[in-house]
């Protein structure tokens, strides 16, 4: 691993200033970043820790606001989330393992843009929006618009995710199912998030290069499916059909 400077700013403004230098990268949980640095994929000259920016809060006032530095474990254990958005709690229980969830953050999981992540399709199906802060000011995007492709986001240089806003689930019913080819907490071969209501929202992931919205099973035929170590494109296309039906059935029978 190449040597680097570690900065720990105390405000968002200070963090943005530090990130404006070439070679600077934000550091949240670091679970993916450190692996990429050890592999030599990334060689930042400076890491800017986001730990002291006050972005680790979970607040509910109709909608749910999740700070970008909230750990996945804190989100999983939140009673507010379990009561109001139980699909998020259920999804997190099989997202990697508890050691990773204790460290990995919501903002980091979104910004990493790995299409195998479980969190983005669930938040996208729920209609969540992500708040971004940069030198050009603040902007808000639907979660699905954060992604441009495999490991690619629409984040501007030096821009940070500050929080995610999730609308109330209300009378809608939600489910998330994934198929793993090894252990239950492994990266999925396919993932399907379904939220049923007046505006039914269905997102698929892992089989595509980013979370993709589909109208129904027929729309799966138009998707470009990505084969990988978890399965061929043909295998994943079959899995998507099966898991979409199962996820819709599970959502219909969900208690909330």
Assembly annotation: single chain
Biggest sheet, in brief?
5 strands, antiparallel
Q: How much of the residues is beta strand, in percent?
A: 25-35%
Q: What's the number of structural domains?
A: 3
| Uncertain residue segments | none
Q: Give Rg in angstroms.
A: 18 Å
Distance between the termini: 47 Å
How many helix segments?
9
CATH class of the largest domain: Alpha Beta
CATH architecture of the largest domain: 2-Layer Sandwich
Structure report:
- There is one protein chain.
- The protein is α+β, with helices and mostly antiparallel strands.
- The protein folds into three domains: 43 residues; 109 residues, Uridine Diphospho-n-acetylenolpyruvylglucosamine Reductase, domain 3 (2-Layer Sandwich); 80 residues, Enolase-like, domain 1 (2-Layer Sandwich), CATH 3.30.390.50.
- It contains nine helices and 14 strands.
- A hairpin with a 2-residue loop joins strand 8 and strand 9.
- It starts with a strand and ends with a helix.
- The relative contact order is 0.13.
Topology:
Layout: E1 5-7, H1 12-19, E2 24-27, H2 33-38, E3 46-49, E4 58-61, E5 63-67, H3 72-77, H4 79-84, H5 86-92, H6 98-101, H7 106-112, H8 119-125, E6 129-134, E7 137-142, E8 147-149, E9 152-153, E10 160-166, E11 173-180, E12 188-196, E13 201-205, E14 212-214, H9 233-252
Parallel strand pairs: 1-3, 2-3
Antiparallel strand pairs: 4-5, 5-10, 6-7, 6-10, 8-9, 11-12, 12-13, 13-14
Keywords:
256 residues, alpha+beta, Uridine Diphospho-n-acetylenolpyruvylglucosamine Reductase, domain 3, 3 domains, 5-stranded antiparallel sheet, 4-stranded antiparallel sheet
């Amino acid at each position: 691993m190449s040597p680097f400077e570690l900065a720990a700013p105390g405000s968002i403004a200070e963090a943005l200033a530090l990130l404006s230098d070439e070679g600077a990268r934000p550091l949240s949980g670091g679970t993916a970043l450190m692996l990429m640095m050890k592999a030599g994929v990334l060689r930042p000259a400076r890491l800017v820790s986001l730990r002291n920016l006050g972005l680790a809060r979970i607040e509910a006032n109709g909608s749910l606001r999740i700070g970008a530095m909230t750990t996945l474990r804190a989100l999983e254990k939140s009673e507010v989330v379990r009561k109001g958005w139980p699909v998020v709690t259920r999804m997190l229980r099989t997202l990697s393992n508890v050691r990773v969830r204790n460290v990995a953050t919501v903002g980091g999981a979104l910004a990493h843009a790995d299409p195998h992540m479980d969190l983005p399709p669930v938040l996208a199906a729920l209609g969540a929006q992500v708040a971004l802060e940069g030198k050009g000011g603040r902007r808000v995007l639907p979660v699905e618009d954060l992604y441009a492709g495999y490991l690619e986001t629409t984040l501007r240089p030096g821009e940070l995710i500050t929080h995610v806003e999730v609308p109330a689930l209300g009378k809608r019913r939600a489910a998330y199912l994934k198929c793993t080819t090894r252990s239950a907490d492994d990266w999925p071969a396919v993932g399907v998030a379904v939220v049923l209501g007046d505006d039914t929202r269905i997102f698929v992931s892992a089989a595509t290069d980013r979370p993709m919205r589909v109208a129904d099973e027929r729309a799966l035929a138009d998707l470009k499916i990505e084969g990988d170590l978890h399965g061929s494109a043909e295998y994943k296309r079959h899995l998507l059909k099966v898991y979409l039906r199962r996820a819709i059935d599970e959502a219909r029978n969900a208690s909330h």
